[in-house]
Amino acid sequence: MPTDSVTLVEMAPRDGLQNEALLVSTAIKIELIERLARSGLTRIEAASFVSPKWVPQMADGQAVLLGIKRQPQVSYGALTPNLQGLKAALVAGADQVAVFTAASESFCQHNINASIATSLDRFAPLLALAKQSQIPVRGYVSTALDCPYEGAVSPTAVAKVARDLYQLGCDEISLGDTLGTGTPQRVIAMLHAVSQEVPMAQLAVHFHDTYGQALANVYAALEQGIRIIDSSVAGLGGCPYAPGAAGNLATEDLVYLLEGLGLKTGVSLASLVQTGRWISTQLGRRNGSKVGLAWMK
Ligand SMILES: CC(C)(COP(=O)([O-])OP(=O)([O-])OC[C@H]1O[C@@H](n2cnc3c(N)ncnc32)[C@H](O)[C@@H]1OP(=O)([O-])[O-])[C@@H](O)C(=O)NCCC(=O)NCCSC(=O)C[C@@](C)(O)CC(=O)[O-]
């Protein structure tokens, strides 16, 4: 594997917290984001401008984005399901936004109350306004391996949605193993299909760690040429509409792997470990990072 660098996209403030049962205060969210930025992460998904009826935990997105002390080298992103969400994200000063759909119809319907085709129709005006505002747009494809309602999802179906998002104008496509059931051979097959439609350099992977395969899946994806990886400090995370799914791959564990491979991340592992321990204490949760638990320095 060649020595080069990997871009990490930090999910903890958004994917990490959206499914927490108890409401997390705006102040804790802001402190989490500021700590993550200080550890060297340059892309942080900070908020979500979705319906507060659907995801109450993310209702304070505007206060969070307006409240953080910004670091100039950091891009603060937000999830936006529709034009209404984008407009709110722009007012709050998001540097990047993300639209999200799925490769399986049932998950898409459960998650955003729309078919895949309808979701793409909604994204068209959003992308037009984002381009006009010079805001990069990420597109998520959830259920890129398995769907909680339909089972295995074919690589062809994933490739089709990824292509549609790319053709709509998304700058980057993140492929989500929403359930965390994937294994490396399936990841390779999926990436092989998707990379026929979207250049590998514009693809990211997003693994949940339900079955403990996330790091193995990352390794397989790196070997295919992936260099953008989503993760969440302390392994926080979960989608309210993906029953049974565990948190995201822990950022600490990812950085430990990447450093071991000689790949640069620009992130301080020591600082991340501290942040992972801090947020786990704040939430009263067991730290989901193996490195975070083992780190002795
Ligand atoms: C998409 C909708 C809004 C459709 O929801 P809907 O009910 O069909 O929407 P609607 O257009 O009929 O509007 C209903 C109400 O929602 C409001 N509304 C409408 N849009 C917004 C908005 N942007 N911001 C704030 N409010 C909004 C709208 O104003 C209206 O308010 P009311 O008149 O009833 O008071 C809803 O289904 C929704 O918000 N879903 C979000 C679900 C979600 O956030 N899921 C988790 C994120 S995805 C994920 O975690 C996976 C990922 C990305 O991490 C990758 C992976 O692991 O796979």
From TrEMBL:
What keywords were assigned to this record? Lyase, Metal-binding
- Check the record and name the InterPro entries matching this protein: Aldolase_TIM (IPR013785), HMG_CoA_lyase_AS (IPR000138), HMGL (IPR043594), PYR_CT (IPR000891)
Q: Which pathway or pathways does this protein act in?
A: Metabolic intermediate metabolism; (S)-3-hydroxy-3-methylglutaryl-CoA degradation; acetoacetate from (S)-3-hydroxy-3-methylglutaryl-CoA: step 1/1
Q: Which Pfam families match?
A: HMGL-like (PF00682)
User: What EC number is given for this enzyme?
Assistant: 4.1.3.4
Give start-end ranges for the coiled-coil region(s). Answer: none
Task: Supply one GO BP term.
Answer: ketone body biosynthetic process
Q: What range(s) does the Pyruvate carboxyltransferase domain occupy?
A: 6-273
> Which CDD domains does UniProt cross-reference here?
DRE_TIM_HMGL
Record bears the keyword Ligase: no
Q: Which reaction does it catalyse?
A: (3S)-3-hydroxy-3-methylglutaryl-CoA = acetoacetate + acetyl-CoA
What GO molecular function annotation could you give as one example from this UniProt entry?
A: hydroxymethylglutaryl-CoA lyase activity
Question: Which NCBIfam families does the record cross-reference, listed alphabetically?
Answer: PRK05692.1
The family note in this entry says: Belongs to the HMG-CoA lyase family.
Q: PANTHER family under this entry?
A: HYDROXYMETHYLGLUTARYL-COA LYASE
- Return the protein name: hydroxymethylglutaryl-CoA lyase
Native organism: Oceanisphaera profunda
